[in-house]
Amino acid sequence: MNVIEAIHYRHSYRGKYKDIPVPKEDLIKIMQAGLDAPSGCNKQTTSLIAVDNPDVLKQLHSVIEPPVGETAPAAICVLTQRVNAYRDKCFAVQDYSAAIQNMLLAIVELGYQSCWYEGHITDDDKICDKMAQILNVPEDYELVCFLPVGIAESNPIHPQKKTFEERAWFNSYNQSN
Ligand SMILES: Cc1cc2nc3c(=O)[nH]c(=O)nc-3n(C[C@H](O)[C@H](O)[C@H](O)COP(=O)(O)O)c2cc1C
Questions:
Q1: Residue 33 within any structural domain of the chain
Q2: Domain harbouring 153, CATH code
Q3: Domain count, the chain
Q4: Domain contains 175
Q5: Average of per-residue pLDDT across 19-44
Q6: Would 46 be classed as within a structural domain?
Q7: 59-82 in b/e burial notation, b at 16+ Cβ within 10 A?
Q8: From the CB of 116, is ligand 1 less than 6 Å away?
């Protein structure tokens, strides 16, 4: 699969996962893809924790309510440090978003599925803080995203997207050539 194919093939997977472990080498490849992402002023504000220990996964799932990705044999938690890249400009969100997208593509390329769970864990009930505590995350980092990783039992659903013409143009707004 080339990169363009992986981009088109990737979709959010919210179904069940097969009970097959993800080898550490694959988790390392996925995390390395995340760390290879660009970052504003190369500040590299994104850090990652892969979780493949069933006891630790269980602890995480005990605080993720309602549950998501609970059958996945592994997961990657994305951490950010909201430091300024220059003057008062903080690019932490852009940095971790680029890292997450790289990881989602690597996940697909390696034959796994995932879903970008950020809204769910960063809502008012702050599931992310409970997860950070379980993973001994220091105070100056925030846990912002949870990516289950595993082999899917079913196919991801392809949501309806707006057409190319509704969102992309040439040379001027709303122009086709
Ligand atoms: C910043 C961000 C936060 C997201 N948070 C969640 C989430 O909390 N729960 C969820 O089910 N999907 C979440 N998603 C996945 C989106 O719902 C999904 O990407 C969108 O519906 C388009 O579907 P696709 O990924 O299959 O193309 C999130 C995606 C992004 C970019």
A1: yes
A2: 3.40.109.10
A3: 1
A4: no
A5: 98
A6: yes
A7: bbbebbeeebbeebbbbbbbbbbe
A8: yes
To test ligand 1's pocket by mutation, which of 78, 118, 131, 144 has the most ligand atoms within 8 angstroms of CB? 118
Taking the C-alpha atoms of residue 21 and residue 72, their distance in angstroms, rounded to an integer, is 9
Question: pLDDT per residue over 71-110, tens digit each?
Answer: 999 999 999 999 999 999 999 999 999 999 999 999 999 9
Per-chain mean pLDDT for the chain? 97
| Of 78, 117, 162, best ligand 1 pocket probe by most atoms within 8 Å of the beta carbon | 117
Domain that holds residue 119: 3-167
H/E stretch holding 75 reads strand 74-80
Residue nearest to atom 12 of ligand 1 (CA): 117
Q: List the structure tokens of 26.
A: 């694959």
Which of the four pLDDT bands, split at 50, 70 and 90, describes residue 1?
Answer: confident
